[in-house]
Amino acid sequence: MDYEMYIGGKWAPSANGRQMEIICPADGEVVAVVPDADREDIQLAVSAARAAFDADDWSSHLHAPSRARLLRKVAEAIREDVDRLAELESLSSGKPIIETSVIDIHLAADCFEYYADLAAHIGGRQVPLAQQALDFTLREPIGVIGMIVPFNFPLLLAAFKVAPALAAGNTVVLKPSEYTPITALELAKAFERLGVPAGVFNVVTGYGKTAGEALVTHDAVDKISFTGATATGRRIMELGAKTLKKITLELGGKGPNIVFADCDLSQAVSGVLTGAFMNQGEVCIAGARILVERAIWDDFLTAFLERTAKLKIGHPLSWDTNVGSLISQQQLEKVEYYVRRGIEQGGRVLCGGKRPDSPEVAGGFFYEPTVFVDVSPDADICQEEIFGPVVVVMPFAGEEEAVALANQSQYGLAGGVWTTDIKKGLRMARRLKLGTVWVNNYSLLRVEAPFGGYRQSGMGRELGVEALFDYTQVKNVYVELEDEILYLYE
Fold it and tell me: Are residues 359 and 218 in the same domain?
């Protein structure tokens, strides 16, 4: 399949004529060919978005009902095409089809529906004043939003950003990952079919160092919303500072998953397994640090290892696959590096720790689910985001030690607590320095609930009304009601 970019309501190749091959990481087959854009293409896309915003046909509060209707239609279009979109996502990303088909694509549609419902209800507030005056606030769209999304949830993370931004009346230039741009372009096809005004939604494909940086540094881009690695987030802040752009960053994590002795053990093992190895660990919220109370250490570890050994590694389009392929050779080598470091720093591998032996997956970037024990809390594999199927299991004794271990991290994105004592669960939720805390669950995201990080896991929030507000700016309006006013200068 050959794709062009969607800019200003039209399909176009890159100005330089270059293209990129999108490769299935599971078998090396070419899935699609897309343009390899650079600064000139970004300029065209931003200009189109700026013209659409300034025309006021989209951004005005009066057009909120129209925006809502279009967003609902986008959700319908996604739901009508779930099977094909899920297959494209799995082929380009390597993640199992059961995840893309059952979860990701449906949740993307949910996101557009949710913000369609909110679009007409973006209001300000009245400000009580002692004097005879009326004061109130308005929430208005920011302008042109540049969006950069990663490879692990291509359509879903785009929806997290695009839906609230458009609902609020902004216009968008979306730069998907160079690994997984296909479903973003398919989303653009839906926007075109549904008659979304030209320039409101634009998709530019290319690499981060060229297209991405050009988007971040463009003077006419009012805000950047980025999801990805913490190091890249720092770079975006540096570049965006030159034009004082508003910025939302959803960055890395090293999630603690805390298992207390009074948990429902079967439920906890299932939840921890999901948090550890969903999407072969290429998840910012992955529960990669598993903290287990000493009283149930042996029982938990036995059950967890038994379940881990049963996970099926395979091609992402197989419905039997639990663990798909990593995104690239580079990512595979990164995982192998951290496993070596874990062993060098005294860790012991209880399962995994290598590429699978099966010839069925020899052509892809696969790695076995890997479980470490005997690891120091300050070891690299405990402190740094690996983005692969590698977890550490550490013991603790009591709430105080659990909190200390969980908070011993530069990150603060998400974590879990497993206990049948709801008071304990709530105490832990209060004390953990995390943007999201699940109690007796893990990895569940709801479009109605805000998501984002503390510390070096980012700033701003995705989802919920908080995300909608993050795509608005507040204007204050003061109306004088006194007939006679004493002015300082008359």
Answer: no
Interval 101-142: pLDDT, tens: 999 999 999 999 999 999 988 989 999 998 889 999 999 999
- Choosing from 213, 250, 385, 462, the catalytic residue is 250
Spatial CA neighbour of 390 closest among 283, 471, 247: 283
Mark whether 70 and 209 lie in a shared domain.
Answer: yes
Confidence at residue 339, expressed as pLDDT on a 0 to 100 scale? 98
Residue 65's SS3 state is helix
> Which residue reads 């999108």 in tokens?
22
Is 21 in contact with 33 (CB distance < 8 Å)?
A: yes
Same domain, 261 and 402: yes
pLDDT at residue 483, as a whole number: 83
CA distance 108 to 105: 5
Q: Are residues 212 and 126 in the same domain?
A: yes
Residue 399 annotated to the active site: no
| Residue 262 Cα distances to 233, 258, 340, 404, 440, angstroms | 39, 12, 35, 20, 12
Q: What is the pLDDT of residue 490?
A: 67
Q: Which of 284, 293, 382, 385 is catalytic?
A: 284
Question: What is the Cα–Cα distance from 210 to 178, expressed in whole angstroms?
Answer: 11
The number of CA neighbours under 13 Å toward the Cβ of 434 is: 30
Together in a domain, 382 and 401: yes
Total of domains in the chain = 2
Q: Could you tell me if 461 and 337 lie in one domain?
A: no
Flag residues of the chain having pLDDT under 70.
490
Q: Which CATH number covers residue 390?
A: 3.40.309.10
Distance between CA 181 and CA 200 in Å, rounded? 19
Q: Which pLDDT score is estimated for 484?
A: 78
Q: Are strands 223-227 and 144-148 parallel, antiparallel or unpaired?
A: parallel
- Give alpha helix (H) positions in 97-206: 97-99, 105-118, 154-167, 182-193
- Residue 284 falls in the annotated catalytic set: yes
Please give the biggest Cα pair distance in the chain: 88
CA distance 315 to 278: 15
Give the domain range for residue 181. 5-251+457-476
Q: What integer pLDDT is reported at residue 57 of this predicted model?
A: 86
Residue 375: what pLDDT?
96
